[in-house]
Amino acid sequence: MSRLPYTDVAVAVPITVPYVRYSTRSAHWFLGQALAEMIRAGGLRKEDIDGLAVASFSLAPDTAVAFTQHIGLSPRWLDHIPCGGASGVVALRRAARAVQAGDADVVAVVAGDTNHVDSFRLMLGSFSRFAQDATYPYGSGGPNAIFAMITSHYMREYGATRDDFGKLCIAQRTNALAAGSHLFRKPLTLEQYLNARPIAEPLHLFDCVMPCAGAEAFLVLRSSRARELGLPHAVVRGAIERHNAFADDPVFVRGGWRVDLHELYAMAECSPSDIDFVQTYDDYPVIVMIQLEDLGFCGKGEAPQFVRSHTFTYDGSFPHNTSGGQLSRGQAGAAGGLLGMTEAIRQLTAAADGHQVPNARLGLVSGYGMVIYDRCLCTGAVILGRPQ
Amino acid sequence: MTMPLPPPRRKNPVLRTRQMNLPPSARTRVALGLTVCAARGRFALQRCAACGAIQYPPREVCRRCLATTLRWTAQDGHGQLLSSTRLHHANDLFFRERLPWRLGLVRLDSGPSLIVHLHTDVPEPPVRVRVSARLDRSGRAVLVGLPASEDCNLGDDPMLREMVCDPRYRKVLVTDGTTSVGQAIVRALVEAGAELVWVGQAEPWKRHGSGIDRLRELPQVSIVPLDLTNGRSVEALAGAIAGKVDIVVNNAEVHRTFGIAARRGLDAARAEMEVNYFGLLRLAQAFGPALKARSADGVASAVAWVNVLSVFALANFPAHGTFSASKAAAHSLAQCLRAELRTAGIRVVNVFPGPIDDEWNQNLPPPKVAPGALAAAIVQALRDGLEDVYPGDVAQEWLERWREDPSTLERELATGFER
């Protein structure tokens, strides 16, 4: 049975709660700020929101359920999304089906986390059962060690160099400065990138995201409802997700996108060459390269060459992570999984002040989340377009 | 190639002694299976009884067929190193104080991918490696990637030395030098490179020709008065040397061969308890805190506590009934000691020999454990970083029966083994 298309599903009102390095507030504060700003920016009443999807690590022990009481909301559709960097895509897919089926009219997707001075370290040891038993006792500072090994393996296998990774990072910093980053305010040069202190070889400082506090949010609703509310919006053209794909690969070299890629472009009735900009999940630059391959922009192992033959700033030949991505904005926990989505909505509603991709009509947003043991398990992607 | 470890420099007494921050010790219950095997020197992973798939990380359910009977099965550890990294940053204090630290990703020939601590001598990937399970300083198993071929200096790798309790360059107290076992242990430790061995003698005025005098010929040996039945004797020695001892080997024991009916009164049983149980307690109270304080004190830090127990501690051997009871009590106390010293990273090594080839086991048939073999097993256990050691064929057989079913072993011991 072929799947129902995402006809008439819109995304609107992208919200970013400014990121800060550390905060004494809790996750509830950041998520609440996101919702308040969303209501204000969208000209909504709080009661208009009848569906809610929440992604957050530091909300614990609370979940989306407790959060409804915390903020005094009574939704008729509720979801808690534990997919980390894939939360944006996953939440969008679930919310899209809810509004298509009429289970909800207006779904708010919010993701965010706080960052106390020692909270990152404390989270690492209890992140997953497998992390507790098989990675945390090995001293890795979070996912750095495993992604260092994925990077090293990829470099050896496919000839990527630190210069290639640096090129991606520098372009993202350029994008971040144009978009108005709160945490990163200085340009990055290749020399600085290459001479940065080592973290876990071959990863150096600027290959790693900076943990911070913040939140991202957007609305999912039917296009007709968006028009009624007078909201600038983008429409969903196609979406895929896949978990724990290629589990027998001894090292991560390809992700679940590959399994469902044809369906993604078939649903969207387009091909990779039609895409005007791409927002990948950039926890480490090697993962960007793997996504470029697995999302069909080049063949397996060809990303290093692809990177050398393109420019990645918002006005470049391949606009990529046009807000600066996590590498140049910071990783506000689960908000990192929505960063690409809010940016894509801005680009497609011509709201990307100062870093607008010219004539942006189709954008691809990719998610990658939850390093449980030796790789992230959740992958997903969505193609968004301007309304016809 | 790992360079041989140079003798540690004299410590500057003005400088602060480094304190121990343990590596992360939290594990799920099922993952403790890896630790239990590693404590006995085995590298085992879960194998599905239904489909044979090897699992890692430890699971409750087979990743291939969903069966739930996953048995810990010995692995040869052969595999391919696929990638490696050198950490220059760590959030965890134990590793932060020991950077840089090498890690590897290994595809085991039997299937799973493993994240391992990587030995310095393993070349850059891709290359063959041998994976082994070791206890880290928190007393929990971790996997280590070793060079495919053995090297004599393997144990001098800084990572591996953190996992084991090598007596080389360390100062050791052996609590009783008057027995053949005690003398064999002292000689084995000296041969293993111990810097100094203090050897206890309970009644130094006795001229009993025990052979302890011949130990004096060894320049590393110092005979000291130590009577475990006397709290003041234990305290006095601790006051003099406890702050310098890196390894305690408690081999002092009283062994009489009676059950209940064959010897009226409590004198023999009380003498056994006084040394085997209360002696351990006195020793632990006097020396334990000092060891804990020096557990991160450089490459020759305080590191281990060895208890020479008996396989009779597992189940009562009626012919040596009261001795068995005293060793069972000592075993129980040693478990308490292990839990308490673990918090500082000091390893408690419990040794459960079968009948030793000495005068108190005169009436038992061979095979019996030669004192030299017992001493070699203790040194090897320290070098491998083991916790539970069962030297000798009898001990191995008892262990197998005991692990299968302690109740059956008890009945067998009452009547003799049915063949």
Topology record:
The complex is a heterodimer of chains A (388) and B (419).
Chain A: E1 9-20, H1 27-42, E2 51-55, H2 64-71, E3 77-80, H3 87-101, E4 106-113, H4 119-125, H5 129-134, H6 144-158, H7 162-179, H8 190-195, E5 198-200, E6 203-204, E7 213-222, H9 223-228, E8 233-243, H10 257-268, E9 277-279, H11 285-294, H12 303-308, H13 325-329, H14 339-348, E10 362-371, E11 376-385
Parallel strand pairs in A: 2-3, 2-4, 9-10
Antiparallel strand pairs in A: 1-7, 1-8, 4-7, 5-6, 8-11, 10-11
Chain B: H1 32-39, E1 44-48, E2 54-55, E3 70-74, E4 78-87, H2 93-96, E5 101-108, E6 113-118, E7 127-135, E8 141-147, H3 158-163, E9 171-174, H4 180-191, E10 196-201, H5 212-215, E11 221-225, H6 231-241, E12 247-250, H7 267-293, E13 304-308, H8 321-342, E14 347-351, H9 371-384, E15 388-389, H10 393-404, H11 406-415
Parallel strand pairs in B: 6-8, 9-10, 9-12, 10-11, 12-13, 13-14, 14-15
Antiparallel strand pairs in B: 1-2, 1-3, 4-5, 4-7, 5-6, 7-8
